Amino acid sequence: MENVLSILFCLTLLYLVITSRLKTYVSILRAQGVLLSAIMVFPFLHHLSVHILIIPLMSLVIKAIVIPRFINKIIIDLDVHRIVEPSIQPFNFLLLIVASMSTIFVAAHVLSGYTPIEPIPFASAFSAIVTGIFLIIFRKKLIIHVIGFLILENGIFLFGTSVAAEMPTIVELGSMLDVFVVVFLMGIAINKISSTFAKQDVTVLGRLKD
Amino acid sequence: MSILLVLTVLPLLSIGVCYFVPSRKVQYIISLFAAIAHLVCSYLVFSGICIPAENDFIRFDALSKLFLLILSHVYFWVVLVSYSYLNRPLIVKEEKSKKLYFMMLNVYLFANTLALISNHLGMFWVAAETTTLSIAPLIYYYRDKESLEAMWKYLFLVSVGIAFAFIGFLFLALSAGGTALEGQQLLITSFTRSAAQLNPIWLKASFIFVFVGLSTKIGIAPMHPGDIDATSNAPSPVAALMSGSLRGTALMGVLRIYQIMVRTGTADFARTIMIIGGLFSLFVAFVFMFKVTNYKRMLAYSSIEHLGLITLGIGTGGIAFAGAMLHTVFNSLTKVVLFLTAGNIHRAYRSREVNSVWNVLQAMPWTGWLFLFGFFSIIAMPPFGIFFSELMIFQGLLTKPLLLAAVLFFLFFIFVGMSKTVFHMLYTAPSVEQTTIISEKFEITHFASLTLLVLLIALGLCMPAQLCDIVGQISKDFGIIL
Fold first, then answer.
1. Taking the domains of chain B in order of start, what are their residue ranges?
2. What is the reported pLDDT for A79?
3. Residue B77 and residue B243 in contact, taking contact as beta carbons nearer than 8 Å
């Protein structure tokens, strides 16, 4: 079941690449939040307890509700232009992502022969990390950079669940809180940037250099 | 237990007070009290007078003790001068930033302490990310376009960098596949103990991710730009804090992974990566030292240079490793002097551009002379401590003559570039339309800088036995017999 959910997670990434509406980006973030929480719960479906549910519930609240709402609020408050302005042709971008994903899946399959990893969640996680980075590189709007960062974080989160590294609950909660505060601070910064500069994209941030 | 309470709970209480009490004076007194208590406790732990309780998640080994003392030292001086700094009339917009200032400093102290004493890599990660979050609003102190851009870049680059470091930690967990550690907590002690069984490929991948990710925070080239912008646009005490202690905390993350790797066959790989990173940082500092026209950016590049040198020393091993540890101490203290005095210059001349600053030595004799001596210290002139630590690094590099030649070449030209800028600021006579300003009084920043310079000389001339012991112990922990 985790494999099916991970594949769904990968499909959201592909959708992310071809869409040009900002609203869809936020919906995808929401969907990923739900998928991640589901992936966390599934292994424990037969012996559920409050202790096990804390982290998935928190992740559901933060990743699927709070953060997307916050980003939506920024988009509405700042009246960000709703169409994404890519600095690369959408088709080329799709090709790039598909090529990276295929490489990652093949590599994960090869690696799984040597190390105890689950190839599909592992490859999906890395695809998300790569997609997040490409979004940051190939999009101009700062708000999409924040979304790219969140996709990257989602990838790491999925990777964390596939590796099965034991983390104390407090550390997991702390890391989620950290991500939330990062996004919150970035939101405030975008707000300030839009009131200080005319636009909210990277082209305005070129004052500091040697 | 009580020591641990003072180190962590006191900053937390102080955060609460700073949040609820609007009076800046009360905030200052409480923060200063927390800083002094933290300094005393760190010293007690450092000198071995008090042995704090340890558990799976908290550990005070020699490395933590040294970095904790550096943190409390730098933090104490920064808090001490902060009140007078906040009272300087500069621009109106700062008023809003001032409300947050002491609270964020306390968050920084709390998170940084936790990062330094944590034995769990997940906990280290959370704490290190929190230090970024606490420092970001402080970078935006002046509320102008430059500081906004600097804050955005720092927050974004470091957050992405630290996310990469997390992938590195997860790789470390993967490296334990098939051993008794599989599925266990990411405790540094247990991983160090069973290092020999870890999978070398994942261990190498882990090191690359952690090193590259944390480089954004340490300031190792080519991941340094966010760091440079942040350090040069933050208010001087915050810049001193970043250069003096924050970079060290990030370095600690790299050192922790390296500590696990030295017990395996992958140690040479880590050393090579660190030497390449260090050398490239020196190269970048060498190129930009001739290009910078902003003296705070010059100091930021100097931090890149010194952290590069420290990483190079760690990678070289042997006596150079011990030199690198001492260099961390001396560099941190010197950076506090330089940034505080640079802050005074910025206040008087209202510009960070080198060409807008002239004749500092006559106009501001206290600041000018202290800046000059701070400069002497950072370029490793005897009898300042950095001279001796650099000498140790060079001694370690004697086995690699080509590398030593390259390092000396870069350092010499960095020295030339930096001197050109510094002497221009201190000595250039004002032209007709430029009038030289004010004479200055002895202030608390001068007191702090003077004390630190005296301390740097004292540490250089007669190194305390405790410091030698701790550095010896750290070297032993990293498998180096001095």
1. 266-482
2. 83
3. no
